[in-house]
Amino acid sequence: MVSAIPLIGGIPAGPELLIILLVLVLL
User: Is 60 exceeded by the pLDDT of residue 7?
Assistant: First the structure.
C-alpha cells in the first residue's frame, strides 16, 4: 500500500481499514 499501515500501533487508519475489509470480503 502507499501509506504505512499502523496495525502495529493498534487501530489502523481509515483508508487502510476500509481496504483491509474490502480485501477480506472479496477473498
Answer: no
| Spatial separation of the C-alpha atoms in residues 26 and 4, rounded to whole Å | 22
- What is the structure's pLDDT at 1? 47
Which residues, including other chains, have CB under 8 Å from residue 6's CB and lie 6 or more apart? 12, 13, 16
Alpha-carbon separation of residue 19 from 10, 15, 27 (angstroms) = 16, 6, 12
CB 16 within 8 A of CB 5: yes
Residue 7 sits at the vertex; the CA angle it makes with 13 and 10, to the nearest 5 degrees, is: 90
